[in-house]
Amino acid sequence: MKIHEYQGKELFRRAGVPVLDGVVATTPDEAAAAYEKLGGPIAVVKAQIHAGGRGKGTIIDNPKQHGVVLAKSADEARAAAAGLLGKKLVTIQTGPAGQTVNKVFVEAGCDIARELYLGIVLDRAVAKPVLMVSTEGGMEIETVAEKTPGLIHKEHFDPAVGLEAYQVRKLCKKLGIGGAAAKAAAKFMPAMCRFYVDSDCELAEVNPLVITGDNQMIALDAKITFDNNALFRHPDYTDLRDLAEEEESELRAGNAGLSYVKLEGNIGCLVNGAGLAMSTMDIIKYHGGQPANFLDVGGSANTEQVTEAFRILLSDPNVKGVLVNIFGGIARCTTIAGALIEASKTVGFDVPLVVRLEGTEVEEGRKMLAESDVDVINATDITDAAKKIVAATGV
Amino acid sequence: MSILIDASTKVICQGITGSAGKFHTLGCRDYGTQLVGGVTPGKGGQDVEGIPVFDTVEEAVAETGADATMIFVPPPFTADAILEALDAGIKVIAAITEGVPVIDMVRVYEKVRASDAVLIGPNCPGLITPGQCKIGIMPGYIHNPGKVGVMSRSGTLTYEAVWQTSALGLGQSTCVGLGGDPIVGTSFIDLLKRYQADDQTEAILMIGEIGGSAEEEAAAFVKEHVTKPVAAFIAGRTAPPGKRMGHAGAIISGGKGTATEKVAALEAAGITVAPTPADMGQAVVDAMKG
């Protein structure tokens, strides 16, 4: 689960990670009032969307309007907010359609001496969280990792212990930080690591992390993703979720207990199991088609879930055909066949439907489909299924 | 022979009185597994269709001599259940539960790796030595005793592979579902070592997916240390970056963990990579021909 920068900074503040004062605004007038409240002389108006690259990103049809704007007066803050709110911001992370800006964060300015990068993620290879810092603040860290990996410095830490003092000293040395700024780092870095663990983050990123003229260390950005599996430990995070940022069909699937990801193609897929669902997409592409989605109905899918799955698939106007690929293990083919027949009654299929069933109770399942009114193109294996759906959708 | 489990393995189920725990416990017993007991705190003294229930794993081990466990307890309690099994001296721990917080697994992983026990999962179908012992939720009847060691990050895709190798008459030595989470107890490399040393295993099928670098690490290991034929399949060639594809661990992040990279690493190590999921069995046949 992702949250907005302004929400992340509030969590930072509570965790003892220094941030600047700021006010969230949903109208231009609120943004102007926020500027007055912060007291000037400069403030920064920042679009709040769940994607990075906002500073370089621009509003659709208005390439001069960037996602982060410096304001030197209340009027400038108002104008910046007016240029962003309700508009679609396109960044390198949003895709060409962009994401609608519903809120802006008006933040006090500060005297920036240096811009650094700090990020914490899980290092899967060693099964430990890792703190990464770099002198290349403000840059896309993926670009830095690719072009100048030597400029990224890493320290793994034990979640129970946190970041040790010597690890901060090592990193400060590599970043060329000394004196008062190093003292600030000795507080900032362990506080971030503690925050990462205590909040069950998947990603906590501060880019840029700035050192001010008076040697303070401040989080100028906050990009946070929580581990969805740990949300049960943090009931207060429920309020932080912004449903407007999520793909509507994915949200709907999530509510039905389905795992769904919308893609750009025209062949809908309904599969049981994540790996099989992914490879079903792959084999459609292999035979010349384009998958419209990833959809895993899970191992114990019931009629309601399969029906909802079909509704979601067929609500995508791009979908010109559906491929059902089920390997019945614990989930029996008869259950899926029954659910398919029920779903066809309530949803109604107006596109070709190719079904491949295999595994537990497969013969009975096939028989059920054959004897039903559902217009099904039967497939004998995955290859056959992929070829038939690609042919049926006329690609 | 086989790896990790065989007909002599004595298995308990942690979470035996829950609906999934009970259902699969009985499924494993029906398959022929020596399912000797179960654990649900507070329900010691009861039984599940004749299988005794204990309050603690320690007690279950003392009473039954169990050396393996399958865990079905809910995600908030899974890490604790794994540690309890470890503490009781269980040697093979299969955590089936999906949805365990990653930070819990960081803590557990270190302890498991420092012990001589093996953790399979979490978020996995379990493991099976066909005809001898099934620990987990896979449909037993698709498996046949045979020569292919199957290891996979995905459940139903493993069934697909098993189905294909059974249909080709190859059969399986031991099949292990590693789990779909970012941190799992056992890696491809851990199993490659065991398959390489196992007389029954004549070929190895590795089923990977996008996310992380476990396949690349396995490829490097195969090149150096594995003399048996290895075939592979990678799911997710069409997966978009930054999106989680069902499994918590199946995500391309920061441009890393793509199927293309993984396939290239595997092929560079001389591994036969199936182009589609329909070709997994054939890829094993091809790898065995050399």
Automatic annotation (TrEMBL), chain B:
Pathway: Carbohydrate metabolism; tricarboxylic acid cycle; succinate from succinyl-CoA (ligase route): step 1/1. Heterotetramer of two alpha and two beta subunits. SUPFAM superfamilies: NAD(P)-binding Rossmann-fold domains, Succinyl-CoA synthetase domains. PANTHER family: SUCCINATE--COA LIGASE [ADP_GDP-FORMING] SUBUNIT ALPHA, MITOCHONDRIAL (PTHR11117:SF2), SUCCINYL-COA LIGASE SUBUNIT ALPHA (PTHR11117). One of its GO terms (molecular function) is succinate-CoA ligase (ADP-forming) activity. Residues 4-100 form the CoA-binding domain. Keywords: Ligase, Nucleotide-binding, Tricarboxylic acid cycle. This is Succinate--CoA ligase [ADP-forming] subunit alpha. It catalyses: GTP + succinate + CoA = succinyl-CoA + GDP + phosphate; succinate + ATP + CoA = succinyl-CoA + ADP + phosphate. CoA binds at T17, G18, S19, A20, K43, I96, T97, E98. Gene3D superfamilies: NAD(P)-binding Rossmann-like Domain (3.40.50.720), Succinyl-CoA synthetase domains (3.40.50.261). Belongs to the succinate/malate CoA ligase alpha subunit family. Substrate binds at Y159. Its EC number is 6.2.1.5. It holds the Pfam family CoA_binding. The active site is at H247. Succinyl-CoA synthetase functions in the citric acid cycle (TCA), coupling the hydrolysis of succinyl-CoA to the synthesis of either ATP or GTP and thus represents the only step of substrate-level phosphorylation in the TCA. The alpha subunit of the enzyme binds the substrates coenzyme A and phosphate, while succinate binding and nucleotide specificity is provided by the beta subunit. The lineage of its organism: Bacteria, Pseudomonadati, Planctomycetota, Planctomycetia, Pirellulales.
